[in-house]
Amino acid sequence: MAELDIENLTFRYEDMVMSFTLRVESGEMLAIIGPSGAGKSTLLSLIAGFDRPESGRVRIDGRDVTGLSPAARPVTTLFQDHNLFAHLDAAANVGLGIHPGLRLTAADRERVYHALKQVGLDGLERRLPGQLSGGERQRVALARSLVRNRPILLLDEPFAALGPALRREMLDLVDEMRKARGLTVLLVSHHPEDARYAAARTAFVHAGKILAVDETSRLLAGESAPELRAYLGELESGEAP
Ligand code: ADP
Ligand code: MG
């Protein structure tokens, strides 16, 4: 279990200034929506430590982790793609989450098999990524996140390439893991229906700021900001997010 506290975290990319303040409760799944280029990935990257803020603090369970390297933070990230090594089988790709040099003990290997089983990939341990479907590959990547045993799971549109039915299946799986392990989950998605399906609360990011955060159905009603209303309207009319 881990509570996440982001306090005035600022980051500049060329002439775009981003500034984030957000509090995520321990064990909750929070969705993050907003237009392309709004800063959603940057926000996750600042939490994971891949980007360094100019100012502000990231606290996890009250502990200041702002100066820590990504590996030293109790955080793991799942991206849309580039999660797997093509020349390694599913079990080895998961094993990397335990030991980057794959020096695994028998107990480690047991954990790998257990995680693959949990994500529904029993029997596919020896398959290479190229021999798996897109959904199965993301299950492998999710299994690797799970064996890392980090209490905060950041999802940066990992299911974006999947169809609606498969996305729901993956969201169910994430939610199961969240409940079983008490994970705190941040889910970036450009599908508001994902937020509605999986997250009790949703944040709207626009032009480098969190303009609104609220209970999901209330937020998706679009009343809290004109930018949010415009964004939801564009999605509905089928324009690019
Ligand atoms: P989102 O995930 O909401 O689409 P991003 O966080 O990826 O938005 O990007 C926010 C802004 O920051 C964009 O204007 C993007 O071009 C810029 N940006 C941030 N980091 C980089 C980077 N390393 N390279 C290129 N552009 C970046
Ligand atoms: Mg992004």
Do you know the CATH topology of the largest domain?
Rossmann fold
Order of strands, main sheet, comes to: 6-7-8-3-9-10
Q: Provide the CATH architecture of the largest domain.
A: 3-Layer(aba) Sandwich
- What's the number of extended β-strand segments? 10
How many structural domains can be distinguished in the coordinates?
2
Under the CATH scheme, which class of the largest domain?
Alpha Beta
> Could you give the distance between the termini?
33 Å
Question: Stretches where pLDDT falls below 50 for ≥5 residues?
Answer: none
| Name of the CATH homologous superfamily of the largest domain | P-loop containing nucleotide triphosphate hydrolases
Mean pLDDT: 94
The major beta sheet can be summarized as: 6 strands, mixed
Jot down its keywords.
single chain, 241 residues, alpha/beta, Rossmann fold, 2 domains, six-stranded mixed sheet, four-stranded antiparallel sheet, 10 strands, binds adenosine-5'-diphosphate, binds magnesium ion
